[in-house]
Amino acid sequence: xxxxxxxxxxxxxxxxxxxxxxxxxxxxxxxxxxxxxxxxxxxxxxxxxxxxxxxxxxxxxxxxxxxxxxxxxxxxxxxxxxxxxxxxxxxxxxxxxxxxxxxxxxxxxxxxxxxxxxxxxxxxxxxxxxxxxxxxxxxxxxxxxxxxxxxxxxxxxxxxxxxxxxxxxxxxxxxxxxxxxxxxxxxxxxxxxxxxxxxxxxxxxxxxxxxxxxxxxxxxxxxxxxxxxxxxxxxxxxxxxxxxxxxxxxxxxxxxxxxxxxxxxxxxxxxxxxxxxxxxxxxxxxxxxxxxxxxxxxxxxxxxxxxxxxxxxxxxxxxxxxxxxxxxxxxxxxxxxxxxxxxxxxxxxxxxxxxxxxxxxxxxxxxxxxxxxxxxxxxxxxxxxxxxxxxxxxxxxxxxxxxxxxxxxxxxxxxxxxxxxxxxxxxxxxxxxxxxxxxxxxxxxxxxxxxxxxxxxxxx
Length: 460
Description:
With about 450 residues, the chain is an alpha/beta fold. The protein has 2 domains: about 1-205 and about 390-455, 3-Layer(aba) Sandwich (Rossmann fold); about 205-380, no CATH class. It contains 19 helices and 11 strands. Strands 1-2-3-5-4-6-7-10-11 form a 9-stranded mixed β-sheet, with helices on both faces. It starts with a helix and ends with a helix.
């Protein structure tokens, strides 16, 4: 009971602290206009309801950065809001007219949104979530951080910036999931929708998502070994070493064999296979205690596996697939048992397989940014009552122009699920390509965005 009482005391002051915390994270919410070569950047801070069904209740802060070409700063331009992948990642920080942004600025005034809980928005991390109170109170708070709340934030912001005018949405990965939620529940706010690697399975629960994912992971790993034949032996050597020695990385991450397997997340990007190869090829260094993993290897691995900057990714990852009221109950871990070839010891097939975009309960022990949130994560995994994120009937009568890039054999989003969804959204045009991996918007941003714009405008 003392813990519960302490949680109540903390929660009693959280509305006051939340505002102060948001202001601190936003640099005291002082609007600023900055310039980079070719760009004008303007800060925006918005107070939005934590629960949009209770608009008079607690408010949190959402940050967004307006970006416009310097030569068009005073022009009347349509707006494009960018929704980042994740969940739990802020929008990118622009450095000049790079990548897809360069193409977007030819036509739009761009708004880079730090989705609630990320970046300069009111943060949700191991440092800030205890202000909410007990783990149960933290879980209740985070239940408001899914795509439906993000879309309602967007509508709140759109009305403040544009009034009744609609805007264009560009959604990357999870941002595309949010865009489909937007089409389902607030299509009146949309002029066009552009989606890259982010068409969700409308009816696919977390179990179905991971049953489709593990075979893709295996294909990606075997393709990597075909490209770099020596890498399986290198990976086996590292795994054998980790099975016998405790390796704690500089950031406090316990590098277990299972955690090492998660480096397979690299294989979903265009350059990821090459990055994984270079990481594996010089992992060991000789020491007085014999061969150990080098500090250089450990530093790179820690950067890849860290959740310090994105704890919501782990806390809410399976919840983004929950829609039927049932708990996700650590779906990736449960479904992994159906694929014994992914066992840490190589399984019956004798191959060492990396995994991909999965979250497991043991991460609450191995990852320092997640350890303090262990009970909160467990409560979210067992939470029931998740409501639908998509409206198939509304999508079937959609009138908003939509175009989507679907990446062939995408590691992170199942291609078959995406194509079924594409057929379910009236008027949606697809570009299915194997020219890019899931990070096509980063790797070939101008090409990808230009193709989607031509599709959505019936120019291609």
